[in-house]
Specification:
- The chain has helices at residues 7-14, 16-23, 26-33, 38-65, 69-96, 101-106, 111-126, 129-152, 163-170, 172-189, 195-220.
- The chain is mainly α.
- The chain has a single domain, classed as Up-down Bundle (Heme Oxygenase, Chain A).
- It is globular.
- The structure holds 4-amino-5-hydroxymethyl-2-methylpyrimidine.
- 4-amino-5-hydroxymethyl-2-methylpyrimidine binds at residues 48, 51-52, 139, 143, 212, 215.
- 4-amino-5-hydroxymethyl-2-methylpyrimidine is lined by residues 48, 51-52, 139, 143, 212, 215.
C-alpha cells in the first residue's frame, strides 16, 4: 500500500513541518493578500533571476547524469524551458516592476541564493539523478502547490500587485510541468526503494524546503 503512494507524497509526509513552513511562509501569505511590501518582492525578483541561472545549471547536470537517451531529452527539456522561456518571462515580468536585465545582471547573489542553488547542484554531483530530482522537487512542485492554493483562495484579483505571479505559477502550463516532475520521481525511484534510501532522500527534500523558506525570508528581511 505505501509503495503505491507517490514518492513525492511520502517525502512531504516525512518533512511535513519543513514543507509547511516553506509553503505557508509569511512572504507567501502576504502575496496572497496583496500586503507584501514591494521592496521585499523586488529583492526576491532580482535574486530569483540569479537563482534561475543556477537552476539551469542543475538541469544541465541532469542531462549529464542521465542513464538513457530518454532521460537526457527530459533533462534537456527542463534546461531549455528555463533558458528559452522562464528567463525571458522573468525579464519581461521584472521590466513591469521597473527592474532592467542590466540591473539584475549587475546584482550579486545573496547568501541564501548561493546556499540554495549550490546545495541543489552538489546534491546532484554527489548523488545520482534521483537525488538531484528530489533536491529540485520543492522548487518545481512547491511553487505549483503554493500558487494553486493562493489562486483558489482568490489571490488573483484586481488590486493585488502579485496577481500575475500567482497566475503564472497557477497556470495549466506550470501545473502540468509540476505534475510531470511528480511522475518522474516515481519513474526514477522504480519500485525497490529501500527504507534507508527513502530516509536519505527525505533529508535532501527537507533541507531544500528549509532553503526555500530562507529564500522567502531573504525577501522579507529587505522590507523596511
Ligand atoms: C527560489 C525559487 N524556487 C522555485 C522556483 C520555481 O521555478 C523559482 N523560480 N524560484
Amino acid at each position: 500500500m505505501t509503495s503505491r503512494q507517490p514518492l513525492f507524497d511520502r517525502l512531504v509526509a516525512l518533512s511535513a513541518s519543513d514543507w509547511d513552513a516553506y509553503t505557508h511562509h509569511p512572504f507567501v501569505e502576504a502575496m496572497g493578500t496583496g500586503t507584501l511590501p514591494q521592496a521585499a518582492f523586488r529583492h526576491y525578483l532580482v535574486q530569483d533571476y540569479l537563482f534561475l541561472i543556477q537552476f539551469a545549471r542543475a538541469y544541465a547536470l541532469a542531462v549529464y547524469k542521465a542513464r538513457s537517451l530518454e532521460e537526457m531529452r527530459s533533462g534537456l527539456r527542463g534546461l531549455s524551458a528555463i533558458l528559452d522561456k522562464e528567463m525571458d518571462l522573468h525579464v519581461d515580468y521584472c521590466a513591469g516592476w521597473g527592474i532592467s536585465r542590466a540591473e539584475m545582471e549587475a546584482s550579486e547573489e545573496d547568501m541564501p541564493t548561493v546556499a540554495y542553488t549550490r546545495f541543489v547542484i552538489d546534491a546532484g554531483l554527489a548523488g545520482d539523478l534521483l537525488d538531484l530530482h528530489v533536491a529540485l522537487a520543492p522548487c518545481v512542485i512547491g511553487y505549483a502547490v503554493i500558487a494553486r492554493r493562493l489562486a483558489e483562495a482568490g489571490g488573483v484579483r484586481d488590486g493585488n500587485p502579485y496577481s500575475l505571479w500567482i497566475a503564472e505559477y497557477a497556470s495549466a502550463a506550470y501545473q502540468d510541468l509540476a505534475a510531470s516532475a511528480v511522475e518522474s520521481l516515481d519513474r526514477l525511484a522504480g519500485d525497490d526503494l529501500s527504507d534507508g534510501r527513502l530516509v536519505r532522500l527525505a533529508k535532501l527534500f527537507g533541507q531544500a524546503c528549509r532553503l526555500e523558506a530562507a529564500f522567502w525570508q531573504m525577501g522579507l528581511d529587505k522590507a523596511p
